[in-house]
Amino acid sequence: MLLAGDIGGTKTILALYSEQAGVHRPVRERRFASAQYPSLNKIVQLFLQDVDVPVDRASFGVAGPVVEGRAQITNLAWEIDARTLQETLAGAEVHLLNDLQAIASAVPILKPDDLFQLNAGDTVPGGAIAVVAPGTGLGEAYLTWEDGYYHAHASEGGHTEFAPRNQAQMDLLRYLLQRMPHVSYERVISGIGLPNIYMHLRHLEIYEEPAWLQQQLAAADDLTPVIIRGALQTPTPNEICLATVEMFISILAAEAGNLALKVLATGGVFIGGGIPPRILSLITASKFMQNFASKGRLSDLLLQMPVHVILSPHAALVGAAHYGMECGRRASTSS
């Protein structure tokens, strides 16, 4: 039996898998609000109380960098240690991987219904694959083809400096630099970044902020859902919310193109995370591919790359489970 987890600053999802059923059919699954618990160990203990079977292996995708079996959750005061988890799991083999490495691990086994195509492109067999995922934070990862299968690699590319592409984005950068010492892409295209764009546009005083919107924002612990609802409002979207999300999409497309160039993603580009599926109608209505491919002399190369949005909310969990099972299979083969 394999225990897999998608560990984020907002939620933690644990699931139990059997080799026979595979990674798309968990035996048991449970969701926890991360901030309500002192550690991942405590959540694992609670989950195991309801599972009367021994766990042989565990694989956790965590929202933060993993170094030598340890991870600090970027947007949560947790430190996760593989050795401590191994003790909690009575000696079971434990793997920690970055959450984007987990999502990337799922990409080769995602089903057609899990994806929405933005650009058909021309897939090069064995070509590198890029993954960009705005959720609570911004994650980036990539896959390379080695020894007959894809290997997922983590990165912290979401924390690189935000590079504006036009005057409006330059104004956004200036606004944010007055309020924080380092402006990364995560500070703009993520759940924690979207409100920064909104506050900048409100500061310009060129959009009306109606009283109902002021009240909802004032009452909300998280501004992002309020802004997205306003942008999607029918029949008439709220103007400042729509402008916020449109700038978000433009910058997301450009950064996806940046990563595609850096890893030469001829195998495809996948947009993951919790936000893109929620604003898919606005992404499809936008100039996403134009912003993605606007790279001067290499624009034609980018237009040849397949681009998809990952619709499945369980991609990180499926990827963590797939990673754990593959580690187990390779260990069995080598022995």
Tags for this entry?
alpha/beta, six-stranded mixed β-sheet, 14 strands, Hexokinase, domain 1, single chain, globular, five-stranded mixed β-sheet, Nucleotidyltransferase, domain 5
**Range of helix content:** 25-40%
Shape: globular
User: If helices are DSSP runs of H or I spanning 4 or more residues, what is the number of helices?
Assistant: 13
Task: Enumerate the spans where pLDDT stays under 50 for 5 or more consecutive residues.
Answer: none
CATH class placement of the largest domain: Alpha Beta
Largest sheet: 6 strands, mixed
What's the count of strands? Answer: 14
Strand line-up across the major sheet: 9-14-13-10-11-12
- What structural category do the secondary elements indicate? alpha/beta
Mean pLDDT: 93
Proportion of residues in extended strands: 15-25%
C-alpha end-to-end distance? 19 Å
Task: State the domain count.
Answer: 2
